Amino acid sequence: MKVLIVNTSDIQGGAARAAYRLHEALLDQNVDSEILSNEKSSDDFTVTVVAISIKMKVLAKLAAFRDRLLLKSYPNKTKTLFSSSKYSSGDAVKAINAKKPDIVHLHWVNHGMLTIEDLLKINAPIVWSLHDMWLFTGGCHYDEECTKYLIQCGGCKVLRSTKNNDLSQSVYRRKEYVLSKLNNLTVIGLSQWLKKTAKASSLLKNKTIVNLPNPISTVKFKPIDKIVSRELWGLPKNKQLVLFGAMGATSDPRKGFFELTQAISRVNVKDVEFVIFGSSKPENTPDLGCTVHYVGCLADDISLVTLYSAVDVMVVPSLQENLSNAIMESLACGTPVVGFNIGGNSDLINHKQNGYLAKAFDTYDLAKGIDWILESNEYAQVCINARNKVLCDFDSEIVAKQYIKLYQGILDD
What's the CA angle centered on 263, arms 259 and 265, to 5 degrees? Predict the structure, then answer.
């Protein structure tokens, strides 16, 4: 079985890291897996770059630029990512078909890698892992609770458009046409929430949609001695540490940094300090009422493992979330997580067993969750539960076998 995993980047970004982990897990199961990407940051020989020549790289960048240019008509759009995916260099499809895979597994393919129309040119059966909502919306990657994808997009909340016949409706109609013609597509909702949401959408309601999670290596992501980890990071040994982090941790409103600041002021436990990764210390540092350690962006798994192991609890206050890499990584390292009961968080967090699920957007309850973890008489058991959850449900070997079974079922039909 030859599987081609397609993602805009090989390891940069949450979707890329998840796709790469699946690739590694498949290789460990002796599956002939390869990654095709537009951008390569690793030195992995099993990763192929589409735009090898300077000319092709320029065309790919130009396609992404032209996509962004379409958004200039919406100067008041929110910070939520919006992709029209109208332009690409066209070389990704050629590269996919040239490799003659048995299965093409798409992940995050925006920023000029593939247009929605390119899907009709792919010869092999397509599996698409939804890392966000983009495939079934008019272009937004998260809908900000708009829900127009249930019927038809237009008057887009993310674009802050008041016209029905706007860019979101144009993108929606393109997707509607292509998806109606595409008969070889299997969609994966990485969380139960995204599977349910996709199935309710007007664009994917008639497609085969299954729930399979991202895998994680529990050999790489495991608990490390807390004191040693704190020494490595230069963090205090006599404080309780709360971790927050994500790509664009303090700049992306969806990640909930504002909600976190509200919750911090309501935490009762004393001698608490916060650690933030995914963002450098801002020029105008917000006063959170306690010491905050900014550790910047982390580029490798070892850094992540030691940081998760150094803290007592992680907080993921995202307002919309699929299946969070950060939550899964933290749990694998035996560190409990507090988050809102939204999206795919409940797939990972069992309330008051391996973490705390706060009422959606309730910052008082978020603070209560932090207190509950830090004050728990059963803290050691909660940490064990955190690790066991990942071992049972998300370990690479277990999840890889589930994907192989899915691929084989598609090929046998």
Answer: 125
Joined tokens for residue 256 = 């909930």
Place of tokens 């247009």: 115
> Helix crossing, 363-375 with 257-264: angle to 10°?
60
Q: Residues of the chain with pLDDT > 90: what percent? A: 80
pLDDT the model gives residue 250: 62
CA 411 to each of CA 56, 147, 252, 406: distance values in angstroms, whole numbers, following the listed order: 33, 34, 40, 9
Give the integer Cα–Cα distance in Å for 192 and 333.
23
Residue 128 CB neighbour total at 10 angstroms: 22
375 and 405 together in one domain:
no
What confidence score (pLDDT) does residue 53 get? 64
The answer on 383 and 262 residing in a single domain is yes
Write out the residue range of the structural domain in which residue 389 sits.
226-393
Residue 99 lies in a domain: yes
User: What CA–CA distance (Å, rounded) separates 339 from 327?
Assistant: 9
d(CA 165, CA 406): 39
pLDDT of residue 245: 85
Do residues 91 and 116 lie in contact, with contact meaning Cβ atoms separated by under 8 Å?
no
**Percent of the chain at pLDDT above 70?**
97
| Residue 105 near residue 6, CB atoms below 8 Å | yes
Pair type for strands 313-316 and 292-296: unpaired
Helix (H, G, I), strand (E, B) or coil at 177: helix
Rounded CA separation 227/237 (Å): 7
**SS3 category, 187:** strand
E runs forming strands in 199-239: 208-211
Instruction: State the pLDDT confidence band at 204, using cuts at 50, 70 and 90.
Output: very high
Indicate the average pLDDT of the chain.
93
How many distinct structural domains can be found in the chain?
2
Q: Label the pairing between strands 103-106 and 126-130.
A: parallel
pLDDT tens, position by position, 216-250? 999 999 999 999 999 999 999 999 999 998 666 56
Question: What's the confidence (pLDDT) of residue 246?
Answer: 63
Q: For residue 48, give the 3-state DSSP assignment.
A: strand
Q: Which residue from 109, 103, 130, 320 is spatially nearest to 212, judged by alpha carbons?
A: 130
The C-alpha atoms of residue 342 and residue 57 are separated, in whole angstroms, by 39
Contact 89, 67 (CB under 8 A): no
